[in-house]
Known about the structure:
It is a single chain. By secondary structure, the chain is of the alpha/beta class. The protein is built from nine helices and 13 strands. Strand 8 and strand 9 form a beta hairpin. Helix 3 packs across helix 4 and helix 6 packs parallel to helix 8 (151-172). It is globular and about 70 Å long. Bound molecules: adenosine-5'-diphosphate and magnesium ion (MG). Magnesium ion (MG) is lined by residues 55-56, 79, 81, 135.
Amino acid sequence: xxxxxxxxxxxxxxxxxxxxxxxxxxxxxxxxxxxxxxxxxxxxxxxxxxxxxxxxxxxxxxxxxxxxxxxxxxxxxxxxxxxxxxxxxxxxxxxxxxxxxxxxxxxxxxxxxxxxxxxxxxxxxxxxxxxxxxxxxxxxxxxxxxxxxxxxxxxxxxxxxxxxxxxxxxxxxxxxxxxxxxxxxxxxxxxxxxxxxxxxxxxxxxxxxxxxxxxxxxxxxxxxxxxxxxxxxxxxxxxxxxxxxxxxxxx
Length: 251
Ligand SMILES: Nc1ncnc2c1ncn2[C@@H]1O[C@H](COP(=O)(O)OP(=O)(O)O)[C@@H](O)[C@H]1O
Ligand SMILES: [Mg+2]
């Protein structure tokens, strides 16, 4: 092999390692392998899908795994969907210490969510947060849109929040994971669309869709489809079942 080719190979190897290091574990070895190592730092990952598709489970799996290593995670839970009991199942014995490393903000209204987002940057710095999870970004927004108020202001508030997430991910080089609900596309019943629209899509460097399905044993299973990624080809999928201790790949 000539010298130049050897150098090129070495550079490729280093950039691969850098890419791999710039990730945070999903909490599942199998999903880590599928996602090229885990969730990427420095960018926003969006996990979208219908209710019961596994969004909260993936969030908690990642959060519990980070918290286990004695590092702190911030979770903004707008759906009241996060149960300490589930975190206990995922972590086992030392769940009390794990819970201490997870900071929760639980806005009940979109107004609360706006206030919560105003605090994010300060909390990340003062508490040494290494990952931010928002589950879900647009539930309270959607409720707000149902009210006879200024839609423009609600939309720009959501846009500001997304801007904050993109900024903290990049500036602090941390992973931001947000979930989003979907509604059926009126023109194409097999497709779903994200609440909040294209803004969320374009702000996320990694887009993951979750679907519910049944496996060969007629058990409830979940299909994860990678729609967008910075260094993996899109449209690959990963099928898993949810278990007490986490997720298991269906081969
Ligand atoms: N301990 C567990 N064992 C097996 N399945 C579980 C367990 N806990 C939750 N689930 C499953 O997780 C699914 C709900 O996933 P969730 O992450 O809450 O969905 P989403 O956030 O998309 O609404 C349900 O099908 C439920 O049966
Ligand atoms: Mg949920």
